[in-house]
Amino acid sequence: MSLGVSGVLSRIQQLQSQLGLTPITPDTASAGTVTTKPGGDSTFASMLTDATGAPLPTIGGGSSGADVVAAAKKYLGTPYVFGSTNPDKGLDCSGLVQRAYADLGIQLPRNSWQQAKAGQPVASMADAKPGDILAFDSPVDHVGIYLGDNKMIAAPKPGDHVKIQKVWETPTQIRRVVTDSASVAAQNMASVRPAALSGNGALAGVPYGDLFVKAGAKYGISPKLLAAVAKVESGYDPQAVSKVGARGLMQLMPSTAKGLGVDNAFDPEQAIFGGAKLLARNLREFKSVPLALAAYNAGGGAVKKYDGIPPFAETQAYVPKVQKALAALGG
């Protein structure tokens, strides 16, 4: 069933009202979908949050192309480091694009070829506007952010750094993610909306699937990822107890459960919502699914100490097990 633009915006308002957020309306789509802040730090500079402060991805109607350009310029001079999304260490081309949009509260895919499918297509360079994503080659292997006047900001190659340069060849794709039009923003929703609203569905055949969907919607994370964690943690057994005392579907330690507001870890609903809250917190802190999973298993302190997945046999095995379970669910 198609909701149409008004139906989509109405549904967003309903969810935001339930979560205590400022509603999105056509009148505010260009003036305050998210409240942006100048500057910023290594965290997302400005983003809608749920009741716990966890970030929720937004549609692109609350920021302008000029905001995107300003966000990207903060990283001028950052060294090119292949595979890095951490500006303190360096950025590659798609890392720069993802980070600039993330600072405005807009989550984009990680890879350049995925970013070349975000938002809406722009016909040609003559129609390009500042803030548009320029993608190059086929298959796409490089992206930058258009500045206007045939210039872009990009992280070009190893040994180089984030800089402003001429658009040196015709892009194979030009994509517009931010817009002042509420109708186009709603169309953009498929590429930047929360995972819980973008086709994770009811997890047919998965035990407690409806609870995973509800918890994913509340905390802005994928229900399939939650289900995958539960599969590996407990095999969907709400009465499971580990040898170290972790309990329930999501295998929460008593102290962890208490900190998450879970009174009974054996109750499937409490356990799933508690696990979702913890996983969302990890994703917000580490901005990486593998690291968030490692923190779920070994604790955030261990991830920070080793600056990556800790060298524990259990954790080293745990992360790929959850990723495999996620893939089996179509995630």
UniProtKB/TrEMBL annotation:
Gene3D superfamilies: 1.10.530.10, endopeptidase domain like (from Nostoc punctiforme)
Matching CDD domains: LT-like (cd00254)
GO biological process: peptidoglycan metabolic process; proteolysis
GO terms for cellular component: membrane
Residue stretches in coiled coil: none
Source organism superkingdom: Bacteria
Molecular function terms from GO: cysteine-type peptidase activity; peptidoglycan lytic transglycosylase activity
Transmembrane regions: none
InterPro entries linked: Lysozyme-like_dom_sf (IPR023346), NLP_P60_dom (IPR000064), Papain-like_cys_pep_sf (IPR038765), PG_Endopeptidase_C40 (IPR051794), Transglyc_AS (IPR000189), Transglycosylase_SLT_dom_1 (IPR008258)
Domain NlpC/P60: 62-185
UniProt keyword terms in alphabetical order: Hydrolase, Protease, Thiol protease
Entry similarity comment: Belongs to the transglycosylase Slt family.
PANTHER family: NLP_P60 DOMAIN-CONTAINING PROTEIN-RELATED, PEPTIDOGLYCAN DL-ENDOPEPTIDASE CWLO
The protein's name: NlpC/P60 domain-containing protein
